[in-house]
Amino acid sequence: MATWKDVIRNVAPALGTALLGPAAGAALRVVSTALLGKPDATEAEVEARIANWTPADELALRTAEQQFTLGLLDKVTAAEEIDAGDRASAREREKGLKDWTPQALAVGTFGAFFTLIFLMVAHAIPPANAQPITIFASILAGAVTQILNYYFGSSSGSAAARDVIRRIAEGKK
After folding, report:
1. pLDDT in tens, 57-81
2. What is the torsion angle, in degrees rounded to the nearest 10, for the CA atoms of residue 131, residue 137, residue 142 and residue 148?
3. pTM of the predicted structure, to 2 decimals
4. Please, what's the b/e burial string for 160-172 (b: 16 or more CB within 10 A of its CB; e: otherwise)?
5. Which position among 19, 64, 95, 149 has the lowest Cβ density within 10 Å, counted as fewest Cβ atoms?
């Protein structure tokens, strides 16, 4: 038997998915507002409304899902703009001060990462050291990714994906 959350997931997949994760409270407020006109309805009230489902409820839920998705995209965009501004500020600081420290750290990190990878491939890792070495390699891999983002920027693919999602949410193709 389908639960009320299954119905939401079928009609408004983004809201249905959000109901299962850390954004469940926000998603429930959106669903509650769309179906009952109040943001603080209980799950039981939402379930009772879905038991008496109408086509108008489906339309309201789909519209609410679009607004929910656009709101999330706006928050992601704002966070990415802050990150981009932070990177730009760090780059300007480096240029203005002619500071060699970020470059030295980048070269050192890349050197340590590739040296560790070479040693891991060329030599057997003693079982007692496998976990600490793997953790250290993971930390270095994360640092290398941050260095690449600092010097070359993050992928423009994420911006393109965000635009596609926004067009879909707005009902455009």
Report:
1. 999 999 999 998 888 888 888 888 8
2. -170
3. 0.52
4. eeeeebeeebeee
5. 95
pLDDT band at 95 (very low <50, low <70, confident <90, very high): confident
Q: Which residues, in sequence order, are CB contacts of 61 under 8 Å at separation 6+?
A: 8, 11, 12, 15, 31, 34, 35
Question: What separation in angstroms does the CA of 102 have from each of 115, 123, 136, 144, 165?
Answer: 20, 31, 20, 12, 35
